[in-house]
Amino acid sequence: MTNKEQINKRRIFGIISHPDAGKTTLTEKLLLHGGAIREAGSVRARKNSKYAKSDWMEIEKQRGISVTSSVMQFEYNDKVISIMDTPGHNDFGEDTYRILTSVDSAVMVIDAAKGIEAQTKKLFQVCSMRGIPIFTFINKLDRHGMDPLDLTQELEDVLGLPSVAVTWPIGAGKEFEGVYDRLNNTVYLFRKKLEIKLDDDGVHSTKLDGILNPGNLEVLRDAMDLLDGAGNEFNIEEIKKGKLSPVFFGSALADFGVTEFLNHFLSMSPPPTTRKTTTGVVTPTDDVFTGFIFKIQANMNPNHRDRLAFMRICSGTFTRGMNVTLARTGKQMKLSQSTHLMANERETVDIAYAGDVIGIYDTGNFQIGDTLMEGKEIINFEPLPTFPPELFSRVSAKNSLKGKNFQKGVEQLAQEGAIQVYKNQYNEVILGAVGVLQFEVFEYRLVNEYNTEIRMENIDFTVARWVKTKDSDSLKKYQNSRCMLVFDHYERPVLLFTNQYALRSFQDRYEDIELVEALNVNDVIVE
Ligand code: G4P
């Protein structure tokens, strides 16, 4: 098989959702269809494993590298599909965001009874910023939920995302009979295990009379008349740009509508595409191997400092043992220990293509966002975005004699991207995170890897905004109990606010101060 054929077979996506919408259940069903797991329940078993909250070792042991950060790869209908696991629940953190910088499309799972929830909205924004296609799977139709029309309207109203329904539910709750596939003009009835190809009359076809529950049929016909008349038209170009979301309905738990979703997803989602560098673009079919590191995971064994770096391959072919150059330092290195991260196990990978994600053992050489490539000509992929933290803690070493270790630990964990580090005007260290687990891991690792007990105190700020100014000293005067000035890793000034209200009143009062949500790192560099 040619390199191009290998690349075109590949699909890599992340599932975004609010906790409990059904991401784990859907992942499991997709893996089952692909034959990657034999039993339903294996993904769930991992998710449910309880862990001692502050014990990083335990977290790692039980959830494991192959759990919190795994890529689940499987083959289905001649495609090689990688699902990037995006941690949710307690382990939601910056990693969750960064993983989305490595995928080519996203599947947004929504609970039909709840509509769009907070975490979905945040993760959606990251995907939308990248302009990747977003597929919507509205789940739990086996229970009564919101009206399907209201759910699709919500995508537009809350997320500003126009949508086009590809499948539509027939009934809900106990009366959920199946879905109508608008593109294939076919009704799939799950309980009756029937597939009915309709004629030109679509859902008005007499073929459905006497087959569907009459109430369901009437509602379906009305909804289709409405969508055909006033809904968005199917447009694959808009879908590929992330400007139109194809919507699917079903029940992950009952495995209703999942196959229909998967088949359409595979035909509509893009294979690996070009990626921007600071000077141009890299195309997957380019001969020269390139890749970038989007996640670094500490080793679960504190006696071994090595770590696992996750690399998305962007072009060329990876072969185990190859020599590459690390763009940041110009250093040559041999990639001899590389693994595939599968649903249930890890295995050594000897060859991989653009669109694959592999794990590389790292002894401290890599940083998040690093570019690796073959040959001497240095290229750099665009920097990964910085995400605005929402939780902050003031932190110091309990024993001042350990100051050096403390600084070193802080520096290295910041580099690794485990947490964001700021300093206030008194040179105190302020940590910023998007999930509480990041603080727990930070503390555990300082104690275990840097032999430093720390004092950590949550501070009451929830919003960070970078400030575009050349004169950061002038910002000191705005500080009060609801606003604090800090400096990030690159000495850029950041204002922390207690809440959105404090931010808004600041903006109203000082209209000429430009505040940016540091979603794109290029936006906040002070000239
Ligand atoms: P998450 O990864 O997005 O957090 O969600 P997860 O799949 O764990 O699902 C959360 C809960 O919703 C689970 O119930 C799961 O069984 C249920 N669920 C998922 N999909 C569907 C669906 O299509 N229909 C219905 N009715 N329920 C669904 P739980 O009670 O928390 O866990 P469990 O006792 O079932 O393991």
Helix-strand blueprint:
Layout: H1 3-9, E1 10-17, H2 23-33, H3 42-48, H4 56-63, H5 65-68, E2 71-76, E3 79-84, H6 94-99, E4 105-111, H7 118-130, E5 134-139, H8 148-159, E6 163-165, E7 167-170, E8 178-181, E9 186-189, E10 194-197, H9 214-230, H10 236-240, E11 245-249, H11 258-268, E12 275-276, E13 281-282, E14 290-298, E15 307-315, E16 317-319, E17 322-326, E18 331-335, E19 338-341, E20 346-348, E21 351-353, E22 357-362, E23 371-373, E24 391-397, H12 403-416, E25 420-424, E26 429-433, H13 436-450, E27 454-459, E28 463-467, E29 483-487, E30 493-497, H14 500-509, E31 515-516
Parallel strand pairs: 1-3, 1-4, 4-5, 5-11, 6-11
Antiparallel strand pairs: 2-3, 7-8, 8-9, 9-10, 12-13, 14-15, 14-23, 15-22, 16-21, 17-18, 17-23, 19-20, 19-22, 24-26, 24-27, 25-26, 25-29, 28-30, 28-31, 29-30
Helix pairs in contact: 2-3, 12-13
